[in-house]
Specification:
mainly alpha; 2 domains; 10 helices; Retrotransposon Copia-like N-terminal domain-containing protein
C-alpha cells in the first residue's frame, strides 16, 4: 500500500470555537482531503466490502475522528461527542455541521430572505406549510421575532383581496386572548 502524503502539522487548522465554523470547516476539509480520508466523513460505507478495503476504511475513520476531535474546543467536544460520534467520522462531521452550519451568517441570511420573499399564491394549504417550514428553520438558527409581529406578518403576506385574513384578524382582536402568536394564525387559516 503506497504511503499517503500527510501534512506534518494540524496546528494550522483553527480550533473550532463555535464562532469560526466556516473557516474551520474549509481548513479541516482540505486537511482531510490531503490525508485521503475525507471520504469517511461523507459516506456511510467503503466502496467495496473486501477485507483490505474495510481495514483501510476503519483506519481512515479512526484517523478522521482523531483529527477532527483534536481541533475542537473543549466545550464543543462536550456538546458534540457521544457514543456514536466518538467512533464514526461521518456522524461526528454531520453533528458538527448541523450544530454550526445553520448558525453561519450566510445561512441565517438565506433563511431570513426566504421568509421575507414568501408570498401567498392562492393555495392556503401550501402557504401554511411554507410558513411553518420557514418559521421552524428561522427558530432553529436562532433568529427570534416577537410572536405577535410574526403572526401579523403571516397575515400580511396574504393578498389584500383576501377576506380570510380580515376575518382572522377580526376574530383574534375580538377574542379574550390578546396574545396572538404564529401558530394560532396558521391554525385559523387551515
Amino acid at each position: 500500500m503506497p504511503e499517503k502524503p500527510l501534512l506534518n502539522h494540524t496546528s494550522h487548522i483553527l480550533i473550532l470555537d463555535g464562532c469560526n465554523y466556516t473557516l474551520w470547516s474549509i481548513m479541516m476539509d482540505v486537511e482531510l482531503s490531503a490525508r485521503g480520508i475525507r471520504k469517511v466523513c461523507h459516506s456511510d460505507t467503503p466502496p467495496s466490502s473486501d477485507p483490505s478495503t474495510l481495514i483501510e476504511w476503519n483506519q481512515a475513520n479512526i484517523e478522521a475522528v482523531q483529527l477532527i476531535l483534536s481541533r475542537l474546543h473543549q466545550e464543543i467536544i462536550i456538546s458534540i461527542v457521544d457514543g456514536l460520534t466518538v467512533k464514526i467520522a461521518k456522524a461526528l462531521w454531520a453533528k458538527i455541521t448541523i450544530k454550526f452550519a445553520s448558525q453561519t451568517v450566510t445561512n441565517r441570511g438565506q433563511n431570513w430572505v426566504r421568509w421575507e420573499c414568501l408570498k401567498f399564491t392562492g393555495n392556503i394549504e401550501e402557504y401554511i406549510k411554507k410558513c411553518s417550514n420557514i418559521l421552524f428553520d428561522i427558530a432553529g438558527i436562532g433568529i427570534s421575532l416577537p410572536p405577535d409581529i410574526t403572526a401579523y406578518s403571516i397575515l400580511g403576506k396574504i393578498s389584500r383581496d383576501s377576506s380570510q385574513s380580515d376575518h382572522i384578524i377580526d376574530s383574534m382582536v375580538l377574542s379574550m386572548n390578546s396574545n396572538i402568536n404564529p401558530q394560532q394564525v396558521l391554525d385559523k387559516l387551515s
